[in-house]
Specification:
Distance between the termini: 44 Å
Oligomer: single chain
Helix content: 40-55%
Radius of gyration: 17 Å
Strand content: 15-25%
Structural class: alpha/beta
Shape: globular
Length: 260
């Protein structure tokens, strides 16, 4: 069993427990549930930089990245840097995140927020909506085509944008459907954890123009972004590059200044 299989097995247990503790009606009655969402896909389409900056405390491959900064400070710093949106990791066991992080980010900023999570159940989409998310991530590697279809359609019914993440051609081919807004290519090989933007480049021609193309993981230089823009990528998910510094917001400001 690889790390992704372990995470998904744990996620099934976690969702089952949450469902028994917090009923759907409680999520639907939350203050933020009726909030008008702010489209991340539209923000990327019209942006000069396309940066989606991430809040991530740790990861299975890197252990601790940054436990010292508050999510509010990071969110405010990112908004000041004029990023397109913020990705908030909400997995607790493997990434040290929580839905409270999403809530705190929402209370601090107006920009689009992406709930980055291992989504396997519609219940998690209701959670995302209730905690102020504007967009959600679906990972093709852990979902069947039917699951991608039903989850993305349910997300759209909640006015949430959908970013679908793929790692290879096979995942991309099973995933293309009208209920997606953004198609993300993860540059990290899930088996070896090696990172290369070559996979983003090779898959770029197979992603229809209807979708906003997003490149994820291992993007740490201005050159990498300029290079990927030639392949029609509009979005660039950057996590550790900002989070490994003492002040992620200031790092993002400096990075974007150079990019412009």
């Amino acid at each position: 069993m690889n790390i992704l299989d372990k995470i998904i097995a744990d996620k099934h247990k976690e969702v089952k427990l949450k469902k028994s503790l917090i009923p759907v009606t409680q999520l639907e009655n939350s203050v933020l549930f009726e909030r008008k969402t702010n489209s991340l896909a539209n923000a990327l389409r019209t942006s000069a930089t396309g940066i989606i900056a991430e809040h991530k405390r740790r990861s299975p491959s890197k252990s601790v990245i940054n436990q010292n900064v508050s999510v509010q400070d990071v969110a405010e710093g990112y908004e000041k840097a004029d990023v397109c949106g913020m990705s908030v990791l909400t997995d607790g066991k493997y990434f040290g995140g929580s839905l409270d992080d999403l809530l705190l980010a929402r209370s601090s900023v107006k920009m689009p927020l992406l709930r980055k999570e291992f989504i396997i159940d519609e219940y998690q989409l209701l959670e995302a909506k209730a905690h102020g998310a504007d967009a959600i991530l679906l990972i093709a590697a852990v979902l069947t085509r039917d699951q991608i279809k039903s989850l993305s359609e349910f997300a759209k019914s909640l006015s949430l944008d959908v970013l679908l993440e793929v790692h290879n051609q096979e995942e991309l081919q099973k995933s293309i459907m009208p209920s997606l807004d953004m198609l993300g290519v993860n540059n990290r090989n899930l088996k070896t954890f090696e990172v290369s933007t070559d996979i983003s480049k090779s898959l770029s021609t197979q992603i229809p123009d209807d979708f906003v193309k997003v490149s994820e993981s291992g993007i740490s230089s201005i050159e990498a972004i300029k290079d990927l823009k030639q392949y029609d990528y509009k979005g660039f998910l950057i996590g550790e590059n900002f989070m490994k510094t003492e002040n992620p917001g200031a790092s993002a400001i400096e990075f974007i200044k150079q990019l412009k």
